[in-house]
Structures are given as structure tokens and as C-alpha cells.
Protein 1
Amino acid sequence: MTVDLDRSIVVNFKTYEQATGAKAVKLAGICDEVAEEAGANIVVAVQAVDIRAVAEAVSIPVFAQHIDPVKYGSSTGWILPEAVLEAGAVGTLISHSEHKLAVFDIEPRVNKARELGLTSIVCSGMESNEETIKETKEIAALKPDFIAAEPPDLIGGDVSVTTRPDLVRGVVEAVKEVDPDVSVLTGAGVKTGDDVHDALELGTRGVLLASGVTKAEDPKKALMDLCKGLE
Ligand code: G3P
């Protein structure tokens, strides 16, 4: 079943120290609390080794950050999609900018996620708007559940992707042309409720973000503010 990501905030824990191991469980607990208090759709994407502990501790959806198209058996060191599902993940990121894959490597992962009922969020993002839109169209043709467009140069900074409305609108339009059933998220530099609001205004269903929450002095406060943009 596809996870409902309408008007949502997907918090990518990446490998931030503040979002690893016991701290991942604590931070996911904060996300869970805010989801409840703000009545918001919040998802956490955690490291593979943290999926089980986080999924047991919270009721919001937990995603993996990556899967590999390997089978049970001889695949040492790869991430078995069945294992993330069994650990409690209900979806997965695929081809995040920090773990980028070619389109032909994305396809088997999207197919495997679909087969197992894991909701897929495939990231897109190249140096220029044109290249990002081209890549996004190729990914949309694979029919993932979601595409999250993130310009790599804005990731981890304080300038929001929404300062590039042409890019966000362009991606939304491009995906609609290829497959209107694929939904669009966007991310990079999203730090405030206004950024979230603008992302929705530009036609996305929500945002994918990390440092605005993982590195915040007060993650609960930061997330509460981000949620205001969903209202
Ligand atoms: O996956 C989310 C991400 O790449 C954006 O990171 O820190 O700019 O919100 P950040």
C-alpha cells in the first residue's frame, strides 16, 4: 500500500550523528510527537541499521534510505529490500544525491519496491534545471510513487529550493506530462514553514529535508514551524 504523503514532510536522517542509533530513536520520537500535535504527515528516512528500533518506537511511517535489487542468498554488504520491509520500513528513498544511481540502476529498485509494497521516493537532481527536468522525466517513466527533486548545490545549505520556482514548477509539469500518477516532492535548504508553504504552492505534495531538523538546536520547535507551512 502506498504511504499517504499528501502535504507531508519527509525527514531524511542521513548519517547525522544527531540522527544515528539511540539518537535516531529519540529524534524519530520527536517527529512522532509533532505529527500527532500538529496533525501533520511526517515520515522519517533512517539508516538501515536503525529501521527496526525506530519502527518499534514510533507510529509514523519509517523509510529506508536505500535498497539494492538483490535476492536472499549471496549478496554480502548489500541492502536486501525484504530485510528493510521485515525490519518495519514501509518505504524507501532511492538514488538520493548522496547515493546517486544511473537511471538503469534505479529501475530494478523501483520495481522491487513496488513488488514488495514499499513506497518509493526516487530523488532527482543535476547541475542545471534542464538536466534535472530531463532526468526527472526519465525517472517518472519508471513509475515510482514519488519523485523528490533536489538541486545538489542547495543541499545542506540555508537557501531553499523554493528560491528556484522555475525548477520546481518545471519538474511538476514534466512529471505530469509523463505520468500524472507520480507525485512530486522537493527539497534542499528547506528550513522554515514559509519554505514548505512555497513548495506546496509550486505544485508539490510536500518536502524532503534533513538539516533543518537533524541539526536544529531544538528539533521539535523547528519541526513545529515547518509544519505551519502545511496548513
Ligand atoms: O534528503 C534531503 C536533503 O538532501 C536535503 O537536505 O539538509 O538541505 O534539508 P537539507
Protein 2
Amino acid sequence: MILKPAVACSTLVASLLSLPAAADASFERCIGELRSEAQTRGVNVDTFDVLTRTLEPDRSVLGLLDYQPEFRTPIWDYLAGLVDDERIADGRAMMEQWAATLQKVEAQYGIDREMIVAVWGVESNFGRNFGKRPLLTSLSTLSCYGRRQSFFRGEFFATLRIIENGDVDAARLTGSWAGAFGHTQFMPSTFARVAVDFDGDGRRDLIDSIPDALASTANFLAKAGWVSGQPWGHEVMLPAGFDLSLAGRHNKRSLAEWARLGVQRIDGVPLEPSSTAAAVLLPAGEGGPTFLVQRNFDALYAYNTAETYALAIAHLSDRLRGGGPFVKPWPTDDPGLSRAERREVQALLTRLGYPVGEIDGLIGKTSREAIQDIQRTNGLEPDGRAGRYMLNVLRRLAGTAQGEGS
Ligand code: CA
């Protein structure tokens, strides 16, 4: 923006110059307040000053803090994107490339390599998605505004300690809007609790050291109560007339008791008649795949506090071990799409005159609105969802449906 000399009278200039400072006075006040806490939070005041001197708030994170999705993603869409052929192939390649490290990690922490690699794949797509937001910016903003300031202050100071300790450079510390970072997408306080230096260079680096990241993931699961040698759980069948009030992750009974109640593994292997605690999960209700989950599923749940994510990690680990897809289909006639198919949706939308930006396999707002528009034009329910049915509609509309057996 150009300010013409004619209008640049001194009062106008003064008021314009004072604008940014005035706008951020509340932030500066807040940083001053945080500074007074630095010492008791284990951060040197000089470090604090150096690292906060040029900080400016990024208020876009506050919108994400209060974001209520208007679009509820069905579990089969999550699973189809998180556990697809691409991620299974990538995971197997990573297991080969990092075999020696994984063997050592497995021996030291008692977590099997397929599970560690599955966490890595779901959390950061094997290091491809770290998140691009500078941690200090996001976390200082969330420390000063919004409804969870006291929580985020803890994370902000934990971030300053990571930098002060020399574990990771400030410039490398980018992550999600909430501050999860690196291969394992740990929050800074989780880093403080469980990150380990596994490559022995004296730094716990979850961004530029894959051995540190893999071992830290294993250490997280070990500390979350992982029981070595036990499975996360199994897909099961419930007997006719099963009392559904017995389901739920917190309703634990012994495997022996579940067997007595008629619960059977879907692969036909008898349930071990032991006192091992397990719970029945019906993530899509009675009509979908059903699982009997054990203690290790709770450890996975601790990673992300979402049963969907825990199930994605658990299932990906089974697939990496050579297991197949769930036996019982999801209760839908319009299944979810892999990331390759989502990219095809985006490419088809673009070809049909709806520019949806980067073809990245992430179906965002623009893609959903384009799909809604096409659905309306074609007399379909405008739910904006990119599923199997819509992919076939788009293929037909774009004239690429040849040889599809239609
Ligand atoms: Ca290290």
C-alpha cells in the first residue's frame, strides 16, 4: 500500500504508525505477564526475551480452537483415507528402511514394530505432514486469548524449554495449530514427559531424527500402559440378542466372560479363556464391524483420545503384519475413498470447471461445495460427501467412465 505524501500529514502518519502497536497492546501485556512466570516455569528470562521479542499473535488459531465441524465425517471415510493401499505400502517400505532401528526400539520398549510404524503413518504420514504453523506463534496466541489459556500456557513454556535445552531449533518448530509437532505429533508437554534421545547425539529431536521419533513413540505407548506381547484386540461377532448395554470401551470384562456371553473372533480362532480385560466396541453401531479391544487399545487411545484414530492405528498395524481388511463391511452402500481416489475426485472436479486448488487428496470446504453444486444440478442429495457413488458420478460427467462396466 502506498501512502501519498499529500495525505501524509504528521497526525495521520502518527495515527497510522501507532495502529499495529495499539492493536497488539493486549498481546504485549500478556507476553509481559508470561515473562513474569518464566523463571518459575523453568525458563530463563533472557531466553524468554530472545524468543518472544518478535512474536506476533496469529488469531486464526482461535477460530480453529472453537471450530465445530458442520460436516460430520462417517467413520468409514476416516478409515478409508487413513488405512489405504498407499499407506500400507509406505509403511512396509519404512519398516524395511528402518529395520535395524525398529529392532532396537522393539527390544528396549517392548512395542512391536508394526504398531510403532502405524502410529507414525497415521500421525504424520511418515514425516510428510508436520504442520506448518510456528509453535511459538500459535501457542503464545492461545496462551493469551481464547478459552483454554491455562492449558496452552503450559504448552508454551514447554516449547520454550525444548528450545532452551537445545533439543530442537525454534525455526524448525512448526506443527499443527494446537502445537502438535514432528514425526510423532507430540504436544510439547508430551515431549517433556516421554521424548527420548535414541540416536545418542544428546538431543531429543522429533523433527529431524527418525530414531528419536520412533523410540519416543514406543516410550509413549510403554508409559501409557502397553502390555508387551498382547494384541490391541480383534474383530469379533456378537451372538444374536447380545445386550448392547454391555458395549463401550470402559465396560471391561475378562476374555473368558466374553466367550461365555457368546462373543467370537471373526477369524474363528477361539477367544483365549483368560482373565485379560477387554471391551466390546461398535464404532458404527450394530450394523458395522465389531471389536473386542484390550489394554493396548487404551494405550493407542491415549495418543489421540479418539476411538476412530486408535482403530485406524490398530488396523494399519494389522495390515502391515499382513492381515486383511475388516471382515464385516461398514453399514453403508456408499463406501469411503482412498487418498488416491480422493485425488481423482479433485482432478475430476477441476476438469469439470470447479477449481479446487492443490490435488492433495484432502477433501476440504471448496471440494465439498463443488460436490454439493454438482449434486444439486443432478437432482442428488446435496451432502457434499466424496464417497464411492459420487466418484462414479464424476467419472461419468467427465466422460472418463469407459470400461467401467457401466
Ligand atoms: Ca537425538
